[in-house]
Amino acid sequence: KQEVTQIPAALSVPEGENLVLNCSFTDSAIYNLQWFRQDPGKGLTSLLLIQSSQREQTSGRLNASLDKSSGRSTLYIAASQPGDSATYLCANTQGGSEKLVFGKGTKLTVNP
Amino acid sequence: DTGVSQNPRHKITKRGQNVTFRCDPISEHNRLYWYRQTLGQGPEFLTYFQNEAQLEKSRLLSDRFSAERPKGSFSTLEIQRTEQGDSAMYLCASSGALSYGYTFGSGTRLTVV
């Protein structure tokens, strides 16, 4: 059974800092991995999708990497802003299943 | 294309009542998913449709829960005889192909009092 762990559970940084959020998973036979953002009481907004054949994806100040062999993904946020404050969730699917398995998320606070 | 739409946004109901939620996926997406999220947890998979066929159901989906997608477009999730433990955010997502990832709606927050 796939398990996804996100460390740290919460992170508080000053504005302008570069930061890394970590995601690990127990079964490396994943199909794709997706990072989401969730604001309090809201739904999920997709940030980046990494397919199993890819090693990283970039969008603006965000960069996500995937290392299947070690069962890890990281989300790098450059020059953080207060508007980046949210919970960040990673999730993956495995071959043969349509089910996304989520971690519990990392709650990020960027202080002005 | 206005994304995935869920209604209502919030629902407060008394224990024992039935509730129904609706999800309208992105129009060209043939895959539709329901997830449930409780406070401080990641979303958990409930069920998946490809067109009108319900292809996968979680053990979380007890016999009080039923989901339909009658014409392969919108979907409904019904909870019968609600319990306080059903209080959660119910999220719907759609996808055109697994390789393109999921798009989630804003969710329906259910509170059972």
Short description:
The complex is a heterodimer of chains A (112) and B (113). Chain A is an all-beta fold and 112 residues long.
3D architecture notes:
Chain A is an all-beta fold and 112 residues long. Chain A contains no helices and eleven strands. Chain A starts with a strand and ends with a strand. The relative contact order of chain A is 0.34. With 113 residues, chain B is mainly β. In chain B, strands 2, 4, 5, 6, 9, 10 and 11 form a seven-stranded mixed β-sheet that branches. A four-stranded antiparallel β-sheet of chain B has the order 1-3-8-7, with no helix packed on it. The interface between A and B is medium-sized, with 25 and 29 residues.
Total of DSSP H or I helical runs spanning 4+ residues of chain A: 0
What structural category arises from helix and sheet content of chain A?
A: mainly beta
Strand content of chain A: over 45%
Reported for the largest beta sheet of chain B, the result is:
7 strands, mixed
Kindly state the number of beta strands of chain A.
11
Mean pLDDT of chain A: 94
Give the uncertain stretches of chain B in residue-range form: none
Determine the fraction of residues in helical runs of chain A and give it as a percent range.
under 10%
* Radius of gyration based on Cα positions of chain A: 13 Å
Distance between the first and last residues' Cα of chain B: 36 Å
Biggest β-sheet strands, sense, barrel of chain A: 6 strands, mixed
Number of strands of chain B: 11
Give the ordered list of helices and strands of chain B: EEEEEEEEEEE
Q: Whole-Å distance between the termini of chain A?
A: 41 Å
Order of helices and strands of chain A, N to C?
EEEEEEEEEEE
What structural class is derived from the secondary structure elements of chain B? mainly beta
Based on Cα principal axes, name the global outline of chain A.
globular
What is the averaged pLDDT score of chain B?
94
Beta-strand percentage range of chain B: over 45%
Q: Indicate the low-confidence ranges of chain A by residue numbers.
A: none
